[in-house]
From TrEMBL:
InterPro entries: N-FG_amidohydro
Protein name (Swiss-Prot/TrEMBL): N-formylglutamate amidohydrolase
Organism of provenance: Nonlabens ponticola
Domain of life of the native organism: Bacteria
Length: 279
């Protein structure tokens, strides 16, 4: 994987080049092994937290980890097009608009001992903007090539926070065109319900149960595309110990293997149904 400027990444996408790159500030990485009508994102995978923020932050490293989506990047890493964030959402949240991307409080707890300087805020917002410049270029190129694209927007959530039984997978679709994409949504739910894991856990997938799909990533792609679907997909943290931070590699491996199979199967069916429309 090569370190690249945003300009170089944009140029490579425009020229339809195959490449692996990490942004030159190490904020995110992008991989394109083949130009296909689907892409995968893990925008909350990151745990990097700038050193000049440490002493001012009231949250511990585990506090931050608890609200991040660890290992989601690994779960999609074998797919042909991936974009994975490496910075913590506690510095700037890619699933929020620029106006709301920098936290003052996080999950009911004040985040900073002292207000951030304007320079630190601007640095974070510049990273946010750069990420979405790349996302936009990817949208434009994939729709140019294929007419219709599906983005798999993978997140995780803390099951222990709920005082009721919650699904292993949750699809957030409240900001998706239900009439246009109902079949694709239901088929993705059906595929996720088929998963098996090496733990004593029944796999279920619900729609708009614990989350409704109100993230900025989904809204940005929907607003800036012609015929693309974003499937905001949450997996509960059955793959780790939420209290200690221990990751269960056998569960992550099983999720990675099956997500690769089902994403490819689903994406090809989606393309067969949608690519001829208005293209």
């Amino acid at each position: 994987m090569n370190k690249m400027s945003i300009r170089e990444i944009l140029r490579k996408i425009e020229n339809e080049e195959i490449f692996h790159a990490v942004a030159d500030d190490y904020s995110f990485s992008i991989k394109i092994d083949d130009y296909v009508p689907y892409a995968c994102a893990a925008i909350h995978d990151g745990h990097n937290f700038s050193k000049d923020l440490w002493s001012n932050c009231l949250h511990t490293a585990h506090d931050r980890w608890y609200e991040e989506d660890p290992a989601t990047g690994t779960m999609i890493s074998s797919l042909p097009i991936t974009i994975i964030s490496h910075d913590s959402r506690f510095e700037y949240d890619l699933n929020r608009s620029p106006e709301d991307a920098i936290y003052d409080t996080a999950w009911g707890k004040k985040l900073w001992k002292h207000p951030l300087s304007d320079d630190l805020k601007q640095r974070a917002l510049d990273k946010h903007e750069a990420f979405y410049r790349v996302v936009l270029q990817l949208i434009v190129k994939l729709e140019e090539l294929f007419g219709s694209v599906v983005f798999y927007d993978l997140h995780s959530y803390n099951k222990n926070r709920w005082d009721r039984e919650v699904p292993v997978f949750n699809l957030g679709t409240s900001n998706v065109d239900q009439n246009e994409y109902r079949q694709a949504i239901e088929q993705w739910q059906e595929f996720l319900n088929k998963m098996t894991l090496p733990i004593d856990q029944k796999v279920t997938c619900a729609i708009n149960d614990v989350f409704q799909g109100n993230g900025f990533f989904l809204k940005y792609i929907t607003d800036n595309s012609v015929n693309s679907l974003v499937l905001a997909t949450e997996v509960s943290k059955i793959y780790c110990d939420e209290d200690t931070g221990v990751i269960y590699p056998e569960v992550v491996h099983a999720l990675s293997d099956q997500l690769k199979y089902y994403i490819q199967s689903h994406a090809h069916r989606f393309y067969d149904r949608h690519h001829t429309q208005d293209f």
